[in-house]
Write a structure and sequence with these properties.
By secondary structure, the chain is an alpha/beta fold. Helix content is about 50%, strand content about 10%. It is elongated and about 85 Å long.
C-alpha cells in the first residue's frame, strides 16, 4: 500500500510552510503529520544537500508518493529538479506537483512537462542575458562609465602619503573607507 508524503520548503526563516500545507489539504490530501517534512533552506541548495530532504529519502519506499505544491519546492535549478525526480523515480517513488495539475513527474507526461518547463526557463535565462549584454553595449557606445564608481585612486592616496598624511587623515580628506586607503596605501 502506497504512503503519501509532503515536502514543504521555504527559503527564509521569516517565511512559513503554512500555505503549502493548506494547498495540499484543499487539493483533498490528508497526510499524516510524521510524513510531512518541512524545511527552511534556499532552493538554490541542491536537494541532495538538504537535511530535511535526505530525511525524507530515508523514510520513503518504493510505491510511495511525494507531493510538492510547486516545482520550485524541489529546487530552482532545472538540472537539480530533474536529477531529484529521476532519483525518486529510480527508487519507485512517484512525484506529484499540485501546481502542474497534480501530474506525476515520473510519468511520461510528467517528464515531458518538466522538459518543456526546463526549455522555457533556459530560453528566458538566455533572453535575459542577451538583453543585459545589449544594454551594456548601448551604454558603452553612449560613452557611459560602467561598473563601480572609483572613489579614490592609487595616485591620490600615494600623493597624500608622500605629503606625510596618516591613513586616517587620508580617509577624512578623500571621504573613503579605511579599508580602501589600506588597499591603495602600498600599491
Amino acid at each position: 500500500m502506497s504512503r503519501t508524503f509532503l515536502y514543504a520548503r521555504v527559503s527564509t526563516t521569516d517565511q512559513t510552510t503554512q500555505n503549502q500545507l493548506m494547498e495540499v489539504k484543499a487539493a483533498g490530501f490528508t497526510i499524516e503529520a510524521h510524513r510531512v517534512i518541512e524545511e527552511t533552506v534556499s532552493g538554490s541548495v541542491p536537494a541532495s544537500e538538504r537535511k530535511g530532504f535526505n530525511k525524507l529519502l530515508e523514510r520513503m519506499e518504493s510505491g510511495d508518493v511525494l507531493i510538492v505544491t510547486k516545482l520550485d519546492r524541489l529546487g530552482r535549478n532545472a538540472m537539480d529538479v530533474r536529477q531529484t525526480v529521476e532519483l525518486l523515480d529510480s527508487k519507485g517513488i512517484k512525484v506529484h506537483c499540485l501546481a502542474l495539475g497534480g501530474v506525476d513527474l515520473t510519468s511520461a507526461a510528467g517528464k515531458m512537462t518538466m522538459q518543456v518547463l526546463g526549455a522555457v526557463a533556459e530560453f528566458e535565462r538566455d533572453l535575459l542575458i542577451e538583453r543585459t549584454h545589449a544594454g551594456l553595449q548601448r551604454a558603452k557606445s553612449e560613452g557611459k562609465s560602467l561598473g563601480r564608481p572609483s572613489v579614490a585612486s592609487v595616485e591620490q592616496v600615494q600623493e597624500l602619503k608622500r605629503a606625510g598624511a596618516s591613513q586616517n587623515a587620508v580617509v577624512t580628506q578623500l571621504g573613503v573607507s579605511l579599508s580602501t586607503v589600506k588597499r591603495l596605501w602600498n600599491a
